[in-house]
Write a structure and sequence with these properties.
The protein is mainly alpha-helical and about 450 residues long. It contains 15 helices and nine strands.
Length: about 450
C-alpha cells in the first residue's frame, strides 16, 4: 500500500525495497498524488496504461495486473516494482454539447450585431443622398402610413414601404394628403419632411360670367376642362334650400343661386367644388340686401331674385339696371306682358340674338312675350348690383326700354309706346346695316 510522503516519492511496504522508496526517472514529479490500492478511482490516467495523448484511450499491449509478481520475482529473485507515474489532476473538460452551444451563441451574437447594424443603416440611411429628379405624387385623403409608404415605394420615391412606416412611427409627424413634388430615391427623413408640411394648393381659375344661365355655364365649364356634370350638380344641394328664400317647394333647380364670380379651385377643378363656392358666395352676398321694400310690396326674396335675373340679362351697364327693374315692376303692376326677348332665349336655348318667329311663339312658361307675370324661376344667377336694383327700384313711369343706336350698350327708356316704336325702328335699321355690334357701338 502506498502512502503520501509529501517528498516526491512512493513508500512501499515491501521490506525488500531499499530505503522504502521507488523514485521515478522524471525529476519533475512532485508529491501530488496518494495512490491507494483500495481506492477504485486511483490510478486513472497515464499511470494505468492510458495513452496520455488521447483522453480515455489505453496504450497498446496487455494491461498489467495490479499485485501480480514480476517475472523476476517468480524465480525468487528480488525485483523492484515498476515505477508508477503520478498524473496531475486536470480540470474537467466541457462536453461537446457545451462547446457547440458556446459556438452557436458566439455565431448568433455576431449575426445579431450584424443584423442590428444593417437594420440601422437601412432605417436611418446615414450614407444615402437626397435623391434625384422630381415627381408629382398624389396622396389621397384619409391615407394611413401604410398606404402612403406603398405609394412612395411604387413611385420610386423611397426604397421600402416597411422602413418608411417605421420611420413615420418613430417621428410621430402628421402626414398630409394632397399633391407633392418629391425627389426620386430620396431618404425616409426627406420624404417625411415633405409630407409633414401641407402641400401648396395648386389652383385653377374658373370665371362664371355675369348673366349666364346654367346651360351656358355648363358649356363654358366643359370647354375649360372642369370635371363633372354641372347641370346635374345644380339641380339640388344640401348647402342651400330655395324655400328659405320664398321659392316654391317644386322649384326644379338652383338657377339664380349660383353666384357669378371668379373662383380659385384646387386642381383638378370639379363642378362640385365650384357649385359649393357659388352657393356660399350667394348666401353671403344676398344676406347684405335689404328686402324691406320687397316685403312691403308682398314680394319674396325669390321674386326679387327672378327680377334681378331679368335685369341682369337686359342691362349690360350697372347704371341702367335700376331703371330696367322699375320697368319690370311697372309692367307687372299694369298687368302687361313683360315681352323680354331674353326670356325667350332662356326658354328655347337660343342665345344667338336672332330669335325666329316660332321661337318667339314658344309655349314655354318662361316666355314672357305670351305669358303674363314673372317666369317660374330666374333665367340666370344675377350679380349683387342687379339684386340691389331689383330690391330697391327707383320710382318711374317707364314702361319700355331699348338699346340705343351707337350708345355703347346703353339703354333708352320711355313711357310712350310711340317713342318706343321710333327707337325700335332706328335700332332695327342700324342692326340690318351693321349687325348687332355695329348697331350698338357704331364700329
Amino acid at each position: 500500500m502506498a502512502e503520501w510522503t509529501g517528498r516526491g516519492g512512493i513508500q512501499d511496504d515491501d521490506p525488500s525495497t531499499e530505503g522504502g522508496w521507488v523514485h521515478g526517472d522524471d525529476p519533475s514529479i512532485g508529491g501530488d498524488w496518494i495512490e491507494d490500492d483500495d481506492d477504485p478511482t486511483a490510478g486513472r490516467g497515464a499511470s494505468h496504461g492510458e495513452d496520455p495523448a488521447v483522453p480515455g484511450a489505453r496504450a497498446a499491449g496487455p494491461e498489467p495486473v495490479r499485485g501480480a509478481p514480476s517475472p523476476a520475482s517468480a524465480h525468487g529473485a528480488p525485483a523492484r516494482r515498476p515505477p508508477e507515474w503520478p498524473v496531475r489532476r486536470r480540470r474537467r473538460r466541457a462536453s461537446r454539447f457545451v462547446i457547440w452551444l458556446r459556438r452557436i451563441v458566439a455565431v448568433s451574437s455576431l449575426l445579431i450585431v450584424a443584423f442590428a447594424i444593417w437594420f440601422s443603416v437601412q432605417l436611418f440611411e446615414p450614407f444615402a443622398g437626397n435623391g434625384h429628379g422630381r415627381l408629382a405624387v398624389t396622396i389621397p385623403a384619409g391615407s394611413g402610413t401604410s398606404r402612403i409608404g406603398d405609394i412612395l415605394e411604387r413611385d420610386g420615391v423611397v426604397s421600402s414601404s416597411l422602413f418608411f412606416q417605421l420611420r413615420a412611427k418613430l417621428s410621430g409627424d402628421k402626414l398630409y394628403a394632397g399633391q407633392f413634388e418629391m425627389p426620386l430615391g430620396t431618404t425616409y427623413s426627406r420624404a417625411l419632411q415633405i409630407l409633414s408640411v401641407p402641400p401648396p394648393v395648386r389652383s385653377q381659375t374658373v370665371t362664371v360670367v355675369d348673366g349666364l344661365s346654367r346651360r351656358q355655364v355648363a358649356r363654358a365649364l366643359r370647354r375649360d376642362g372642369v370635371r363633372g356634370n354641372y347641370m346635374a350638380a345644380t339641380r339640388h344641394s344640401p348647402l342651400l334650400d330655395p324655400t328659405q328664400y320664398g321659392a316654391p317647394r317644386q322649384t326644379p333647380y338652383l338657377e339664380g343661386f349660383l353666384y357669378p364670380d371668379t373662383y380659385q379651385l384646387a386642381k383638378p377643378a370639379r363642378v362640385g367644388a365650384l357649385v359649393a363656392d357659388q352657393l356660399a358666395t350667394f348666401k353671403r352676398e344676398f344676406a347684405t340686401v335689404n328686402l324691406g321694400w320687397a316685403h312691403a310690396h308682398r314680394l319674396t326674396g325669390y321674386d326679387v331674385l327672378i327680377v334681378a335675373s331679368l335685369t341682369e340679362a337686359e342691362a349690360t351697364r350697372a347704371q341702367d339696371r335700376p331703371l330696367v327693374a322699375s320697368v319690370i315692376y311697372n309692367r307687372l303692376a299694369a298687368k302687361i306682358n313683360l315681352g323680354l326677348d331674353t326670356t325667350v332665349a332662356y326658354a328655347t336655348g337660343d342665345y344667338s340674338g336672332n330669335l325666329t318667329r316660332s321661337e318667339l311663339a314658344s309655349p314655354s312658361r318662361w316666355n314672357t312675350t305670351n305669358h303674363r307675370g314673372l317666369p317660374p324661376t330666374p333665367i340666370n344667377s344675377p350679380t349683387l348690383s342687379a339684386i340691389e336694383a331689383a330690391a330697391h327700384p327707383p320710382r318711374t313711369n317707364y314702361l319700355y326700354f331699348i338699346t340705343k343706336v351707337c350708345g355703347g350698350g346703353a339703354l333708352a327708356f320711355t313711357s310712350s309706346y310711340a317713342d318706343f316704336q321710333r327707337l325700335s325702328s332706328a335700332y332695327n335699321a342700324a342692326y340690318a346695316a351693321h349687325g348687332l355690334r355695329g348697331a350698338e357701338y357704331c364700329k
